[in-house]
Write a structure and sequence with these properties.
By secondary structure, this protein is α+β, with helices and mostly antiparallel strands. The protein is built from 7 helices and 10 strands. Strands 2, 3, 4, 5, 6, 7, 8 and 9 form an 8-stranded mixed beta sheet that branches. Strands 1-10 form a two-stranded antiparallel ribbon. Helix 4 crosses helix 6.
Length: about 325
Amino acid sequence: RAGGDMWPLLQALSLAPPSALSRLPAATPRYLRAPGVRLSLDASALSAVGEVEDAAPAPDLRLVAPAKVNLFLRVVGKRPDGFHELASLFQTVSLFDDLDFWTSPREEGAPLASLEVTPDSLGAELIPTDESNLVVRALSLYAERVPSSPAIHCRLHKRIPAQGGLGGGSSDAATALHAANRLAGLPVSQETLIEWAGELGSDCGFFLSAGTAYCTGRGELVDPRRPLPPTACYLIKPAAGLSTPSVFKALGLEPGEAGPAGADPADLLSRFEAGDVYNPDLYVNDLEPPAFELMPELRQMCDDLRKFGFQAVMMSGSG
């Protein structure tokens, strides 16, 4: 089902194999690079971001930033500090944003980080290019902490929709951190980059892993896991979306209160890693009930998809 009240994406996307600096063939069409892409493993793997090869004159560095899905998401409880304790299996998929980077010498009075958005980006008119954008914040953070690094300008082409539980903004930020480090000669360790990414957003650090990870805490504690079996994944994004704060508020937990009863996250993880990826009982998201309350059409959409014969249907992230 596409068009009308649906964002026009009903696209078969393979779960991206955990590989880093995955090289995409130059002949791959720029706008539809995601479907059917086979990401190759690179011995110098550092993160889940991919490098675009292009024979034409190019920026100093061109990367792709993958979307993710939560294969399960358990809310363990609400902490005294107001954050929710989570346990989730994150997995990248082959839907990407493009990010191009140019470097220049630092100049007094000139910005250390800047951003432009391509006019044909998804939702281009709604994407800020100031410090409220996670890409600019990531580049600025790196520039502040690595004084020897150059000034960086980024051009962003968005394909990953916002408010879809796909982590597009976090992935772009992590990719910007990775790019800044490469363009500075890799002076910062991967572990430190993941820590810095956690300051930008709860799931940013995941996108500096190899593509499959068990994430806990607010989502910032990243435990890389071995690759899951390649699996077809269909993404459907309604035109409307839900903000993460509104969904957690609707969950209604008080500080110190435990989350909903349900399957042990460790058991879910072990069963996924045993290859039981087609078992619908493993696809658990504790944020579905509050999201369905806020947007009942999401529940109807999931029910329709099950009637169409999809074996496992779930909402990713907070919707």
